[in-house]
């Protein structure tokens, strides 16, 4: 089983689980990456956490993928962006995506689609992608990645996502202002009990221009065994 993660800046991630590929929150107009959407091969699945422009900006470049999002975002993307293949799901659900399973979890944030049309975005979300379906039986052999979306620190990370969905790695927003900042994101890493942690959603706009090294120090100060990784954009990480 191969499980590869690639950060493309901001909250944009490419995930490959064996032969199945995922792209999460495509937004390539960020200072971390030199890639254009046309440089990126269409994934099997496109996952959207919520409807803000810095998360769906380039979704229309990947309409040949199967969209996975809330029913509200699926409705918008099907009508306005041209997606023909979509899976509308909601918080707490898990769907089978070929070589992987995708679970949708809460994210404490706002939502909205600012297009001039009247669309609801539904609840914002995070995604847990694993190579086995989650159950109450602990599975030490599974590999699982948690994309937290845009969120504040929330007790669900400690009470549900960490102990029951058992992520091995987590990408957490650290930019502050619109999401968690470095110290709350470090607490999230500790609560999630992951082996590997990655910062995202920082350095894109002036309000979220934070130093990721501050987050690394905060993570280390929690005493968690998690290893913090500040990734360079577009370089794969083998989980």
Walkthrough of the structure:
The mean pLDDT is 96. The protein has a single domain, classed as Metallo-beta-lactamase, Chain A (4-Layer Sandwich), CATH 3.60.15.10. Strand 5, helix 2 (71-81) and strand 6 (86-88) form a beta-alpha-beta unit. The chain is 20% helix and 25% strand. It starts with a strand and ends with a strand. It is globular. The protein has 239 residues and is an alpha/beta fold. It has helices at residues 53-56, 71-81, 156-165, 182-192, 212-222, and strands spanning 3-7, 13-17, 20-24, 45-47, 66-69, 86-88, 94-97, 100-106, 125-130, 144-147, 169-173, 196-200, 227-228, 237-238. The chain is built from five helices and 14 strands. The longest helix has 11 residues, at 71-81. It has a seven-stranded mixed beta sheet with strand order 6-5-4-3-2-1-14, covered by helices on one side. It has a seven-stranded mixed beta sheet with strand order 7-8-9-10-11-12-13. Pfam families: Lactamase_B_2. Keywords: Hydrolase. Belongs to the UPF0173 family. GO terms for molecular function: hydrolase activity. Residues 20-202 form the Metallo-beta-lactamase domain.
């Amino acid at each position: 089983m191969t499980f590869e993660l690639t950060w493309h800046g901001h909250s944009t991630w490419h995930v490959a689980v064996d032969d199945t590929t995922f792209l999460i929150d495509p937004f390539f107009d960020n200072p971390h990456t030199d890639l254009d959407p046309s440089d990126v091969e269409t994934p099997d699945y496109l996952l959207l956490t919520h409807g803000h422009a810095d998360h769906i900006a380039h979704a229309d470049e990947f309409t040949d993928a199967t969209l996975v999002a809330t029913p509200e975002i699926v409705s918008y993307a099907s009508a306005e962006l041209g997606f023909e293949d979509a899976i509308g799901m909601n918080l707490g659900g898990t769907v089978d995506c070929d070589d992987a399973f995708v679970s949708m979890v809460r994210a404490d944030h706002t939502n909205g689609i600012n297009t001039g049309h009247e669309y609801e975005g539904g609840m914002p979300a995070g995604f847990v992608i694993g190579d086995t379906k989650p159950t109450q039986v602990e599975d030490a052999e599974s590999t699982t990645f948690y994309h937290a979306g845009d969120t504040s620190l929330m007790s669900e990370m400690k009470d549900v996502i960490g102990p029951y969905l058992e992520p091995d790695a987590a990408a957490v927003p650290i930019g502050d202002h619109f999401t968690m900042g470095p110290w709350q994101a470090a607490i999230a890493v500790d609560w999630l009990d992951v082996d590997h942690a990655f910062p995202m959603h920082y350095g894109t706009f002036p309000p979220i221009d934070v130093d990721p090294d501050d987050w690394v120090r905060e993570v280390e100060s929690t005493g968690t065994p998690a290893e913090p990784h500040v990734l360079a954009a577009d370089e794969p990480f083998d989980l």
